[in-house]
Amino acid sequence: MGDWLLNLPVLWMAVVVFAATYLLAASVYWVVTRLAVNERARAFKAVSPGMLPPLGILFALLVGFIAVEVWNNYDKAKVAVASEVGMVKCAGILLQGLCALVAIAMVHSDNRLACAIAMTLFATGIALSLLLIAAYSRPFIGEISVRPNLLKQVITSGTTGTQP
């Protein structure tokens, strides 16, 4: 993920991530609804709704594992490793989310309102997941960074306790 995004204040990071995710969802919606005519509409409708739960579970597992790793890195302050691999992780989430959005659009291609609602809800989940991972991926930079105050308190309390 670009340094410019990770260096934004959390509010602006949220605006960028949510806008990009909704733009992606709107693009998928537009393409699928334009393609869902005649024979393709029947083919899209033949995509099994049973495909959605496994896609959602895979997305949730991917986000969960990446979030645990990011928060562990946050705790352990492995900034260099987290920032190098961050782009690959977020690309993985986006690709898995894109697959789920396409499947949702295809399953609901005959009911555009239901399609738009389902895609908006799932896109919100994607955006929130990306935002949380991006916001916590750099523990010493940004609004929610670890500040040296706590470390100073620990050092101060450690030195006062060791004196005779």
Topology (SSEs and partners):
Elements: H1 3-6, H2 10-35, H3 38-45, H4 52-76, H5 79-107, H6 112-136, H7 148-162
Helix pairs in contact: 2-5, 2-6, 4-5, 4-6, 5-6
Describe the protein in words.
The protein has 164 residues and is an all-alpha fold. The chain has one domain (3-162). It is 80% helix and 0% strand. The chain has helices at 3-6, 10-35, 38-45, 52-76, 79-107, 112-136, 148-162. Helix 2 runs parallel beside helix 5 and helix 4 packs parallel to helix 6. The relative contact order is 0.17. Mean pLDDT is 78; it is low at 78-82.
In short:
The protein is mostly helical and about 160 residues long. The protein has helices at about 5, 10-35, 40-45, 50-75, 80-105, 110-135, 150-160.
Number of helices, where a helix is a run of at least 4 consecutive DSSP H or I residues: 7
Average pLDDT works out at: 78
Structural class: mainly alpha
The main sheet comes to: none
Helix content: over 70%
Distance between the termini: 51 Å
Quantity of strands, as a count: 0
Tally of separate domains? 1
Beta content: under 5%
Order of helices and strands: HHHHHHH
Low-confidence stretches: 78-82
Shape annotation: elongated
CA-atom Rg in angstroms? 21 Å
Give keywords.
164 residues, 7 helices
